[in-house]
Write a structure and sequence with these properties.
- This protein is of the alpha/beta class.
- It has eight helices and seven strands.
- Strands 1, 2, 3, 4 and 5 form a five-stranded mixed β-sheet that branches.
- A hairpin with a 2-residue loop joins strand 2 and strand 3.
- Helix 3 crosses helix 5, helix 4 crosses helix 6 and helix 4 packs across helix 7.
- The longest helix has 17 residues.
- The chain is globular and about 45 Å long.
- The two termini are about 30 Å apart.
Length: about 230
C-alpha cells in the first residue's frame, strides 16, 4: 500500500509467506537462528513494544504439506509455477517508525493476494468473530487493494504490478472462491464505522465507497467465472 499505491497500509507485525515444501528444513533453520520458535506453519518471536510484550508471527503456506502441522494451498503451486509475483521495494520499521531494513522482495501479485484472502472467507460460517479477530483488518486490506488499483488504474496501465483478472481466473480454476464473501463480512461487522473512519482518515481514501466496493467485487467475480 505504502510503496505501490501511495496509501497508508494498516500496520501489522504478522508476516504471511508462500513457500515450497522442499525448503521447509532450510526455513526452519533460518527462523530458528533468528530467534523464532516453531509451531508447524507458524513461527513466533516475542518482542518488547512501547507498552507490552508482543509477538512477531511469520506464517507459511506451502505448495505441498511438508509436515502434519503445516498448511498447504493449491494457490501456492500456481503462484510459483506461473510466477505470479514481482519484486517490490519493501521496508520494515519498528514501533517508532525507524527503518530497520529495506530492499526488494518477491511480492505476490495483487490478484493472488485477493484470492488467498477470499479463500479464507468463502465459507464465512466457519470464520465467526470468536474464531478470528482480524476481520476488520482483512476488510481494510481487501478494500485498499480493490479500490486502490481502481482509483489509480491509469497510473498502472502497461506496468507489471497491477490487478490482473487473468490471475484471479487461473487461481479460481485451482480452487473455487468468492470475492464477494469479504463484503458479506463487512455488512455484518460491528466495526463498520471504525473501518470507514480508518480508511478515510488513516489509509487515505477520502470517502468510504461501500456500494462501489461491492460492485467492483461483483464485477471481478463475474469476470473470473466467464
Amino acid at each position: 500500500m505504502d510503496n505501490v499505491l501511495g496509501y497508508n497500509g494498516v500496520p501489522s507485525i504478522d508476516i504471511d509467506s508462500l513457500a515450497k515444501a522442499e525448503s521447509f528444513g532450510e526455513i526452519r533453520e533460518v527462523m530458528k537462528n533468528l530467534g523464532f520458535q516453531s509451531a508447524g506453519f507458524r513461527f513466533a518471536k516475542p518482542i518488547k513494544s512501547l507498552i507490552v510484550m508482543e509477538e512477531v508471527k511469520v506464517d507459511f503456506l506451502f505448495d505441498e504439506k511438508p509436515s502434519q502441522l503445516s498448511f498447504d494451498t493449491p494457490f501456492a503451486s500456481l503462484i510459483f509455477r506461473n510466477r505470479y509475483y514481482s519484486k517490490v521495494y519493501f521496508e520494515v520499521r519498528d514501533f517508532n517508525k525507524n527503518l530497520i531494513a529495506g530492499g526488494k522482495v518477491n511480492v505476490a501479485f495483487p490478484g493472488a493476494v485477493l484470492a488467498l484472502k477470499s479463500d479464507i472467507y468463502t465459507d464465512v460460517a466457519n470464520y465467526s468473530d470468536d474464531k478470528r479477530d482480524k476481520h476488520w483488518k482483512d476488510i481494510i486490506d481487501v478494500y485498499s487493494l480493490v479500490m486502490g488499483f481502481y482509483r489509480k488504474r491509469e497510473a498502472w496501465r502497461g506496468k507489471d504490478f497491477y490487478l490482473r483478472k487473468g490471475v484471479l481466473r487461473e487461481l479460481h480454476k485451482a480452487k473455487s472462491y468468492r470475492l464477494t464473501s469479504i463484503y458479506e463480512v463487512l455488512k455484518g461487522s460491528p466495526y463498520k464505522e471504525d473501518i470507514r473512519i480508518m480508511l478515510a482518515d488513516y489509509v487515505g481514501f477520502r470517502v468510504f465507497e461501500e456500494k462501489l466496493f461491492e460492485r467492483k467485487l461483483r464485477e471481478l467475480e463475474d469476470a473470473i467465472k466467464n
